[in-house]
Design brief:
- By secondary structure, the chain is mostly helical.
- It has one domain: Amino acid/polyamine transporter I (Up-down Bundle).
- It contains 15 helices and no strands.
- The N terminus is likely disordered.
- It comes from Asparagus officinalis (Garden asparagus).
Length: about 425
């Protein structure tokens, strides 16, 4: 067990608690593995050919995705192995940070995680809106149904789903649907991309833009690499797994980063191979094929996004349900349902408004990776492990973890600058509530 020094114990006013309105210690490791896999194979994968491969090229993109997977697996396993320090389970990321550092870092971690999850949820609503608009323009070209309208519809559907799913463990059968939907749009994107690539002339794989813009887009793409693999809520997901929690979480993580990553690689590489530097940031807008096939793929992307959003909104739901929920008994009692309608509905309304206001999906991915995924997944994970295991680590091990802390801190800063620049550039190109 890790031991904190006396000063840290004096500063620690917040005790990590297992008290929660949601279900914990209930799910087998493979269900947790599918939760993780649902996250990395969400409809966001349809954006990686354009947002990762185009600015990095073949060498940078392939090597970057592999290295990002390796570093992400390692960092997530560090956090997983800290789940039971201090003689109790830490079922929230902020509880773990608060146990190790104290009150200030507890609130800082909660703030970073909230920003991370809020922006991911906002991106999901943008994705769902894009899928709806893609279906519409397959049949009509009058431009009557604009992207902001589609985003509002998507936000409403996400809200209806959230009202009926009380907690993360309750997804169960929905994870099966999510996997099916993922396979539909991934296989469709892969097959149609391969078909287009075989029949089309040679593609241009050069990295577009001026020298300066290439630098910023490359740094932004690095943030997207990190975003692709990480949830920023590993302790919350680990809280749902049955004991032995560390061993079972390790199984789930290995599943995520081996079998779970294959669909991501397939659609990302096929999409870039087929269209080169002209690849769209939403792959299904680039592919050619029967209208009914593209409709099915976009519908699957929409439905999977509704399910995946619930995963990344669950820490906020858990906090609101635990702190402010008034209902007792069944999660489906009228009182509890009304509470979810009001509270979750309000939260998703804000998400939907921001999504419609600034529907720049690639920029959201970059900024999310820079501001929160880098610090939560790499900087904080390595430093927490250093502090918790400081008496058990050799000098080379300490040097390795410190190099990760410093290196990823610099990357996070550079990625944040690049992402903000991208947003400013796009904000000049497109007006608010843009119909992209």
């Amino acid at each position: 067990m890790a031991a904190m020094d006396a000063n840290d114990e004096k500063k620690l006013d917040i005790e990590a608690s297992d008290e929660t309105a949601h279900q914990i210690s209930h799910d087998p490791w493979y269900q947790v593995g599918f939760v993780l896999t649902t996250g990395i194979n969400s409809a966001y994968v349809l954006g990686y050919p354009g947002s990762v491969m185009v600015p990095l090229g073949w060498v940078g993109g392939v090597v970057g995705l592999i290295l990002a997977a390796a570093f992400s697996l390692y960092a997530n396993m560090l956090v997983s192995h800290l789940h039971e320090i201090g003689g109790k389970r830490h079922i929230r990321y902020r509880d773990l940070a608060g146990h190790i550092y104290g009150r200030k870092v507890y609130y800082l971690t909660w703030t970073m995680q909230y920003v991370n999850l809020f922006m991911i949820n906002t991106g999901y609503i943008i994705l769902a809106g894009q899928a709806l608009k893609a279906i519409y323009i397959l049949y009509r070209e009058d431009g009557a149904l604009k992207l902001p309208y589609c985003i509002v519809i998507a936000g409403l559907v996400c809200g209806l789903f959230a009202f009926g799913i009380p907690h993360l463990s309750a997804l169960r059968i929905w994870l099966g649907f999510s996997t099916f939907f993922s396979l539909v749009y991934i296989l469709t994107g892969f097959v149609l991309s391969m078909k287009d690539g075989i029949s089309s002339p040679s593609r241009d794989y050069s990295i577009p833009g001026s020298h300066t813009s290439k630098i910023f887009s490359t740094v932004g793409a690095v943030a997207n690499l990190v975003f692709a693999y990480n949830t920023g809520m590993l302790p919350e997901i680990q809280a749902t797994v049955k004991p032995p929690v560390i061993k079972n979480m390790d199984k789930a993580l290995w599943f995520q980063f081996t079998v779970g990553g294959l669909p991501l690689y397939a659609v990302t590489f096929a999409g870039y191979w087929a269209y080169g530097s002209s690849t769209s940031t939403y792959l299904l807008n680039s592919v050619n094929g029967p209208i009914w096939v593209k409709t099915m793929a976009n519908a699957a992307a929409f439905l999977q996004t509704v399910i995946a959003l619930h995963i990344f909104a669950s820490p906020m739901y858990e906090y609101l349900d635990t702190e402010y929920g008034r209902g007792k008994g069944s999660a489906f009692s009228l009182q509890n349902i009304l509470f979810r309608v009001v509270v979750r509905g309000g939260y998703l309304t804000v998400n939907t408004f921001v999504a419609a206001l600034l529907p720049f999906l690639g920029d959201f991915m970059s900024l999310t990776g820079a501001l929160s995924t880098f610090p939560l997944t790499f900087v904080l994970a390595n430093h927490m492990y250093l502090k918790a295991k400081k008496n058990k680590l050799s000098l080379p091990q300490k040097a390795w973890h410190w190099s990760n802390v410093v290196g990823f801190s610099f990357l996070a800063l550079a990625a944040a600058i690049a992402a903000i620049r991208l947003i400013l550039v796009d904000s000049r190109t497109y007006h608010l509530f843009a119909d992209l």
